[in-house]
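All the exercises in this workshop are built on plain-text protein records. A record pairs a protein's sequence with a compact description of its fold. Read left to right, the C-alpha cells trace the chain's path through space. Once this layout is familiar, the rest of the handout is easier to follow. Here is such a record, shown just as it appears in the course material:
>
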Amino acid sequence: MNRREFLTRGAAAAAVIGSGGLMLGRSVGDPGRLTTRPRKPTKTITPGEHLVADDVGRRSILFVPSSYDPARAAPFFLALHGATGSGERMLSGSRAAAEAHGVVMLSPSSRDYTWDAIRSTYAGDFAQIDRLMNDVFDQCAIDPQRVAVGGFSDGATYALSIGLINGDVFTHVVGHSAGFIIGGTRHGRPKVFLSHGRQDNILPIDQCGRRIAAQLRREGYDLRFDEFDGGHTATPEMRERAMQWFIGV
C-alpha cells in the first residue's frame, strides 16, 4: 500500500466524520460479529510463543507470558498489525509489554497485505480471528473483564471497527495511528485508547486521529487520546502506555 492510498482513505474518513457520521462503509445484516466468548478452558497450555496458524508463511502467533497461571484468569489482547505487516512483526513490538503485565496476546496475520474489511467486507481474516480466539479461550483462563483488541495503522482501523461492533466481548480498544472506522452495528460500550503522531504524513492527525477522537467523545465513549510528536508509528513507549491503561496500572 502506498502513501496515496492511505491519504485517500484518510480524506474519505474525514468527509464522513465531518458530516456527522463516524462510520465508513455500510452495514449489511450484522457483519463483524464474533461468535466466541471467554469461558472456562477445557485444555491447558504452557508459557511461551505458540504457532497457531500458518497461511503460506503468514504466521499467527499466540504469546503466553511466563507469569501465566491457569488458576488465575489473565488479561487477553488481540494485536493486529498494519498494512504489509505480519503477526510476528506485531508481536515483536508488543511482546515486552505483554510479558511485563502478564497479558495473553494473540497476534494473527492477515491473509493479504491488509485486513479484509479495510478494502472489502469481513470475510476470511475475520473468520480466522474468531476461530483463533475461540481456540485461545479453550486453552487459557481469560478474565472476561479484561479483553482488549488493538492495532497499528490499518490494524488500528480494524481493531477500532471490530472493537466497537463487539463491545460486549472487548472491554478495551486500542488504536495507534488509526485511519477510520468501518461501519457496523455496535454492541456494548468498551473503553477506547487512541494515539496519533502530530507529524504523521501517512494518516494525518487532523483528518484521522483527531476527528475519530472528537466523534467518539460526542458519542459518549470513555476515551483517552494521546497525541505525540512523531510520525506514523507506535513506539514501544506508547505501546507500554496503552498496556498500562488497559491493565489499570
